[in-house]
């Protein structure tokens, strides 16, 4: 082989090495972008403690207070009738009438308690879900799992517990601060 032949082979080898180096760098760069892109677009899943969220939501506290006032008024009326029933001065005919009123008002009190709890809980959860949807969009969460003391969740890293963050958000939203 001549000197010109060796020079051509060396040039080809250098060009080949340059192309190989460039293609390796390009491949690694593409892989890094792919990994970073997929990492940032991976689903963001978090969880909250439903009980803590519900009990500490300001709307729950307000509705509970208003419900307790109404409940206490109705309970006082039932207690008053019970006291009348215990009175030795009440005639048998009056006792029968008071007993009917007592039974009716006691049933109404129980119905009020059941209805109020169910109705208000439904309203509260609807509001929480609405606010949680907005919270999810703002924080780019794709899924918020609600669990009662982690009973339905077999494992969850504490780092993804956003109960306090969501609670702060919904209370500010409810108070009109956000």
TrEMBL record:
> A single Pfam family, by name?
OmpH
Origin: domain of life: Bacteria
Q: Which SUPFAM superfamilies match?
A: OmpH-like (SSF111384)
* Single GO MF annotation: unfolded protein binding
Q: What keywords are annotated for this sequence in UniProt?
A: Membrane, Transmembrane, Transmembrane helix
Membrane-spanning residues: 20-39
Write down what this protein is called.
Molecular chaperone Skp
Organism annotation: Flavobacterium hydrophilum
């Amino acid at each position: 082989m001549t000197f010109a032949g060796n020079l051509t082979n060396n040039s080809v080898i250098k060009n080949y090495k340059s192309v190989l180096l460039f293609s390796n760098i390009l491949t690694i760069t593409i892989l890094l972008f792919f990994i970073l892109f997929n990492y940032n677009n991976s689903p963001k899943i978090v969880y909250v403690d439903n009980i803590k969220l519900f009990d500490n939501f300001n709307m729950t506290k307000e509705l509970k207070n208003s419900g307790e006032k109404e409940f206490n008024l109705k309970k006082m009326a039932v207690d008053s009738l019970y006291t009348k029933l215990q009175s030795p001065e009440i005639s048998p005919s009056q006792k029968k009438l008071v007993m009917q009123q007592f039974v009716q008002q006691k049933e109404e009190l129980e119905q009020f308690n059941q209805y109020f709890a169910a109705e208000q809980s439904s309203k509260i959860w609807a509001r929480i879900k609405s606010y949680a949807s907005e919270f999810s969009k703002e924080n780019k969460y794709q899924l918020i799992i609600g669990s009662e003391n982690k009973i339905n969740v077999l494992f969850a890293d504490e780092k993804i517990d956003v109960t306090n963050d969501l609670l702060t958000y919904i209370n500010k939203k409810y108070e009109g601060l956000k």
